[in-house]
Amino acid sequence: MKKSLIALAVLASSGAAMAQSSVTLFGIVDTGVTYIDNANAAGDNVYGLTTSGNATSRLGFRGTEDLGGGLKAGFWLEGEIFGDNGNASGFNFQRRSTISLMGGFGEVRLGRELTPGYSKTSGYDVFGQTGIGQFNGWQNWVGSPTADAGNVRSSNMISYYTPNFGGFTAGLGYGFDEQTVGKAGRYAGGFGAYDNGPLSVAVSYDQRDLVTAANAAISRDTLTVGASYNLNVAKLSTLLQQSKYDRPGQSDAKFNAYAVGASVPVGAGEFKLQYALYDQKAIDSKAHQLALGYVHNLSKRTALYGTYAYLKNKDASNQVLPGVASKGLSNVGGPGIGENQSGVQVGVRHSF
Fold first, then answer.
1. Which of 26, 133, 250, 279 lies at a CB distance of 3.0 to 4.6 Å from 256, suitable for a disulfide?
2. Close Cβ partners of 206 (under 8 Å, ≥ 6 residues apart)
3. 212-221 pLDDT per residue, tens
4. Distance between CA atoms of residues 343 and 321, nearest Å
5. Cα–Cα–Cα angle for 48, 265, 95, nearest 5°?
6. Alpha-carbon distance 150 to 250, whole Å?
């Protein structure tokens, strides 16, 4: 009898502990067909199956445990899925791999994830930083081979996110370089934001130490301002960004990028329109990008989408439509100095 009571007590306490914890499996599968006109300097047209045209395909696990007293512990492991080839290079958790503590003070995270300088202001891109219509300011402007040179993510990072104070939020992050010589890979950045009703405004600034192919140390400083206003019949958004490279022994390289866009809900769908200008001061050249998209929701989790984008290079610019080369069509590159490029994406997105 005693043994039965002890067993029941252990089972009950175990059930109570499990009730305080939760683990969620989640993901998105987004696959479509993409056609790119003038896909390289030879003027070839390229088409095929691509991934993440509307939302980045992913598979992840996240969970929290209630530690009591308003304190929680959490973890988040997330990796990218390539629906076109089934992750031929293998699956990893490089999208996010963090452990965190949360409470009334906010949240502290340790690990690899989106940088604070990107996580908030990137949300003002009408195309959500996916597909050929996305704003391409967060790119590797100078061609440095350093990992994460686009400032989208950082490894070895400790970050802090504040609670919401009447619409005000902020985040800070520091990524250790873990180098014995030099600081290549070191990241530091943060953002401040205000969200109140239809108005949203955010400012972010970050700095990353890089190393070029010639093994010369350089640093990148990026300032971004984003804003949006919801008119109900349409949501207007804008992005203003400057990336400046400090290159010892050389002149500084500066790149300005701007975007204005609108999303318009229509029935079960949404139209998206965005114009971006890439003012490449370092080479005294510009590129213009215009994108039009439509997303039709078949349900809360499944949608069909289509996007058309046109990129016009001027002078010495050789920009390429984003979200293609790394998402299934590796043979797509710059169309050539001063040449134009256009593309179409049609696909289906399902979340779970």
1. 279
2. 115, 116, 117, 118, 151, 173, 187, 188, 189, 190, 221, 222
3. 655 568 899 9
4. 8
5. 50
6. 21
Closest by Cα among 145, 219, 228 to 189? 219
Specify the higher pLDDT residue, 336 or 145.
Answer: 336
Residue of 291, 311, 326, 346 whose CA lies nearest to 54? 346
Amino acid 20: pLDDT: 63
**pLDDT band at residue 5 under the 50/70/90 scheme:** very low
Per-residue confidence (pLDDT) for residue 59, from 0 to 100: 98
pLDDT in tens, 243-268: 999 988 888 999 999 999 999 999 99
- Token pair recorded at residue 227: 């804003």
Cβ–Cβ under 8 Å, residues 13 and 43:
no
Among residues 59, 72, 66, 119, the alpha carbon closest in space to that of 99 is found at 72
CB 116 within 8 A of CB 122: no
Q: What is the pTM of this model?
A: 0.91
Contacts of 198 (CB under 8 A, 6+ apart): 229, 230, 231, 232
DSSP code, position 145: -
CA distance 128 to 232: 19
Cα dihedral 151/152/156/161 (nearest 10): 110
Q: How many CB atoms lie within 10 A of CB 258?
A: 16
Q: If you ran DSSP here, which 8-state letter would residue 117 be given? A: H
